[in-house]
Amino acid sequence: MLPARRLPNARAPFPARTLPRAICLALSLFAGAALAEAQTAPSIPAGPLAHALSTFAERAGITLSFSPEAVRGLNSPGLAGGGSVQDGLTALLSGSGLAVHKTASGYVVLPAATDAGLQLEPTNIDANAAQSAFAPVSGYYASNASSATKTDRPILETAQSISVVTAEQIADRKVDRVEDAVAYTAGVRVGSSGLDPRFDMISVRGFETTIAADFLDGLRQPGSGWLSLYQTEAYNLERIEVLKGPASVLYGQISPGGMVNRVSKRPSLEAKNEVQIQSGNYNREQGQFDLGGRLDAEGDLLFRVVGVYRDAENYIEQLNNDVRLIAPSLTWQIDPDTRLTVLAQYQERETAGSPMLYKDGDHLTNFWQGDEYFDKLEQRQWTLGYEFEHVFNDTFTFQQNLRYGQIDTTNQYLEPSEAGDGHTLDRYAVGIYEHLESVSTDTRLVSRFATGDLQHTLVTGWDYAMIDTSLLYAWGAGPSIDRYAPDYHQFVARPSDALADQDGLEHRSGLYLQDQIEIDRWRLSAGLRRDWVHVRRSDNMNSSNNRKDSDSATTGSVGALYLFDNGVAPYASYATSFLPQSSAKPDGSPYKAIEGEQYEVGVKYQPPGSSTLLTASLYHLTQQNVLTRDLADATRSIATGEQVSRGLELEAVSDLNDRLKMTASYSYNKAEVTKNNDGNTGKAPMNVPRHLASLWLDYRLPFGLGVSGGARYTGSNYGDAQNTEKNEGYTLVDAGVHYDFGGGLDGVRLGFNARNLFDKRYINCQQGYCYRGEARSLVTSLSYRW
């Protein structure tokens, strides 16, 4: 059995690569590219005006603002496509008594009698923006999301709890990892094993999402083996959507706590070009760029390319933080009804896990048992995929997304065995070598039609994922080390004695349908899904251990929301989930899959004419078939355990005005083991804090100066199942200051950011292992946007 998150780490030389030259070449080629203002208007079918405007904004990649009250009950004649964006919007509004006006922040729909020269306050312009869930968003407030419905739908009108972390939030906090980007989100706990950059440690409502709920652009990023997990640089994301509660009805085998959907940056005429350099403590040097625009005069071909080059360490001396990334994408508007977007990514990184803290009597020490040239985690990954859409007519739209990817992982470390004389530590070398190939695809038909007074958006589809893995786990002799006079540069031979040599092949698929229904002010939803999973494991050292497993399940969801005139939207929902167990019984047969069930009620509030969304939710979430001891045989486990989370979440996201932006959250989660044969019934699950809270503000002062700051509180939690070992709560403070140059240097920003400003030192222990949290990090940045 592999130890959990125990990798020590080292500063090993990063091999010479050609990627930095490619980044420099891309910078020289595209540094002069500017965004075009003109774009051909897309084809839009006739139908409800609100939906027509939202679809137009998504396909044209623009920010479009309108009042839901102004368009309620109105229909649009549709649009054949072609012409300018302004002309297209005018055609959509024909006969409605409304007109469109171009502003510095995008387009705004107003009564036709309104003076075209009226200058609106920025708060009003963004208030009810028909933003796309895939295009850039200005500020912290996002009106739409796609994760809950697989369509571009207003969050205010969705009967589920959804949080969005926009690219501007990521940029203002200067975070590299998705884990750090979602740290201010309600219901989300990060860093349960201290600083461990090998993967994102994210829990939603008390349940881990690291492997079971890792999604990119709505497609599963499958993980297997031990460390074959796709990694995503936060700078390459347009947004991160956190969907809370069971989501199997649309995504299949998933954690009951929810999912984290990373949305890639993709071509858009609304995106700004940027080139940025960074420097910081722990020898941090970083360069990154985000460039895009038109490739033809008509705007039918758009491109975007994102690149990152980082050479850095962490406050733990032997832990690297090196990344090389390039992510190009291309969108082709084949005709007014057909669009294809191709997304690719190549990434190299070197890092390692956080070292365990060793005890010297009753005190924890910072001794590290590894070797700087041997201990490492090196990973190379690449992905290539597409998103295709064809509009057949006013009713049917066909969509298909597909992505292929590969990961190669080398993970080496030295493990202590025993100390012969009290200060000399004997060690052995461990090597884990993994290869993963995956295919993820989602094919769906979106049908928009009416039955009487009911307006339907019916999504029917089939998704599939294939994961092909190979794992070699070996060990060998290692040199000893003196705990009080360590030598971190000894010769270590590559491990040669195989402990495990395995291959695996998984097929996951599901058929689903979900109907979103609008009737007057009601927003109703219902969905159903059937899942299948087939797993084959091959033991190359012992063929008798080969196994084939299959499982299937049916999951569903229902929801109801009522939209009041004053922006208040109460809702209620019910959903179930399904997640096969990764371990097997002693006879090789699989344990029964984990099942999740959630009841949720809540209320959302968007004050009319504001870019503010307030959300409050209450939930009762149950996870069944948790492994527990078999009373008939204490050496075995059975899937009869149960865990319940009952909680309250409060969240506020607001662009209060053109100078002040804010996010705030509070979460209360009373998690409890309700069925268990190990004597832990009534105990709290490990690593589930009862309280989480956060606040972040960014304020732009006159004359280009801006300040930002925030605090994140993680409450106390237990590090063992018996609740005898308690991790104390802690608060981390982050801060930043930035200055925007004007005049001839318009678009240039100088920034300084500090994470864990007061260098709060904290540890988190679990099952006898203790890990250090992240110390203070400082980043100075200089960027140019145009």
Task: Write a concise keyword list for the protein shown above.
disordered N terminus; single chain; Phage tail protein beta-alpha-beta fold; 7% helix; globular; mainly beta; 2 domains; 43 strands; transmembrane; ion transport; signal; five-stranded mixed sheet; 22-stranded antiparallel beta barrel; 786 residues; Maltoporin, Chain A; 8 helices; zinc transport
Q: Can you give a write-up of this model?
A:
The chain has 786 residues and is mainly beta. The chain is built from eight helices and 43 strands. The protein starts with 18 loop residues before the first helix and ends with a strand. It folds into two domains: 40-108, Phage tail protein beta-alpha-beta fold (3-Layer(bab) Sandwich), CATH 3.55.50; 264-785, TonB-dependent receptor, beta-barrel domain (Maltoporin, Chain A). Helices cover 7% and strands 53% of the residues. Strand 32 (612-630) and strand 33 form a beta hairpin. The chain has a 22-stranded antiparallel beta barrel. A five-stranded mixed beta sheet has the order 8-14-15-12-13. The protein has a three-stranded mixed beta sheet with strand order 2-5-4.
